[in-house]
Design goal:
The complex is a heterodimer of chains A (113) and B (243).
Chain A (H helix, E strand, L loop, with lengths): L15 H13 L1 E3 H8 L3 H13 L3 E8 L2 E8 L1 H30 L5
Antiparallel strand pairs in A: 1-3, 2-3
Chain B lengths: L1 H8 L2 H19 L3 H19 L3 E9 L5 E9 L2 H27 L6 H23 L7 E2 L2 E2 L2 H10 L2 H15 L3 H15 L17 H29 L1
Antiparallel strand pairs in B: 1-2, 3-4
Helix pairs in contact in B: 3-4, 3-9, 4-5, 5-7, 7-8, 8-9
The chains are: A alpha+beta (113), B mainly alpha (243).
């Protein structure tokens, strides 16, 4: 295992939709299924699959209930989910820094004849 | 594996900027800033009849400075102040919490109002306690307030800092932090300036009129109400543009 930031990325979290779910759940404290579906522009089935992956990994909890007669599903980030999200953001920033610092000397170098 | 994972996730720059965009959307959905401002404006306007139908209490003391200066220092307050404000502020924060909870659940997100409500109630209780203490231990020197040696011009601001309007302003600063709203932070500082300086726009009703408190409450309440209207319109426009 090398110290490259890409090695620190978690396959469960490092996925566009799942990272979006964790980001929203973190900021919202608790988020409803419909809000996630609308903001991530997903079908209910697709979103459910991603939620199942995150729930199996222990990163979120899913709670079903009712608001009046309407069924509601609420998603809450677990402590492990918060840590995983923080780690993913840190690794992404490191990766960006690494790419940018690798680009810098190449851009400044004199092109060979 | 890391390569697979990286390609599955996409460009790190894009992922981070999308995270920021989603965070902004959630914050926009959570903000109902006009609610606390409107409720607190109502509490401020509600003080007008409470003060009008109670009486003014005036306690005066003669002070003598060691250097020979002397004079009379008077503490004037309304008998309704210690009853109306603790009840009105606690009721206001309970109402705000309930409305925030209702609105945010209807929008499908959690709420960040809890620290604001706790801070609001704590500040209201603390400042009421301080005002009661000052009432029981009135200053014996116009420059000596709460054991602090203070220039005469600052003394009024110190007394106003322990007042209900200041309690509202301090709690709004906590809400600005909780909602991560720069606009509300600017508004809260502006409101505090109006309350503490105080800015009366030249409208003064002198004592012993029983309406001497009126300009103060009308100005403070109007600032909160105008703020509520401005935030309601701005947040509605922001939601419509992001929808």
């Amino acid at each position: 295992m090398t110290g490259h930031p890409a090695n620190g990325l978690d396959d469960v979290v490092h996925q566009r939709v799942r990272l979006g779910i964790l980001t929203i759940a973190h900021e919202a404290r608790q988020v409803e299924f419909g809000f996630l579906r609308a903001n991530l522009e997903l079908t209910a089935g697709n979103l459910s699959q991603h939620l199942t992956v995150l729930e199996s990994a222990g990163l979120i909890t899913i709670e079903k209930g009712y608001a009046g007669k309407r069924a509601r599903t609420w998603i809450t980030l677990t402590k492990a989910g918060r840590l995983a999200l923080r780690e993913e953001i840190t690794q992404l920033k490191l990766l960006i820094n690494q790419i940018e610092s690798a680009d810098r000397p190449r851009n400044g170098a004199v092109a060979p004849d | 594996m890391a390569t697979e994972s990286a390609s599955m996730g996409g460009d790190p720059q894009q992922l981070l900027s999308r995270s920021r965009e989603l965070t902004a959307r959630v914050r926009s959905a959570q903000r109902v800033t006009w609610v606390p401002l409107a409720v607190l404006a109502a509490a401020t306007f509600g003080a007008v009849p409470a003060y009008r139908f109670s009486h003014s209490v005036r306690t005066c003391r003669t002070w003598v400075h060691p250097h020979g200066q002397s004079g009379t220092i008077c503490l004037v307050y309304n008998s309704a102040a210690f009853v109306y404000w603790p009840i009105a502020l606690v009721a206001a924060y309970v109402t705000i919490a309930a409305l925030y909870l209702h609105r945010s659940r209807a929008r499908g997100v959690g709420t960040r109002v809890r620290p604001y409500v706790i801070a609001g109630i704590a500040i209201a209780v603390l400042l009421t306690g301080t005002s009661l203490w000052v009432d029981r231990h009135p200053p014996t020197d116009p420059h000596d307030i709460l054991g602090l040696h203070i220039a005469a011009l600052q003394a009024g601001s110190i007394f106003r800092l322990t007042g209900p309007a200041s309690a509202i302003g301090l709690a709004l600063l906590v809400l600005a932090w909780a909602e991560r709203s720069r606009a509300l932070l600017v508004f809260a500082f502006g409101y505090m300036a109006i309350v503490l300086i105080p800015i009366d726009f030249g409208w003064v009703i002198a004592r012993p009129s029983r309406w001497s408190f009126l300009p103060h409450f009308v100005i403070d309440g109007s600032v909160l109400l105008l703020g509520a209207i401005a935030f309601a319109l701005a947040q509605r426009a922001a939601r419509q543009s992001s929808a």
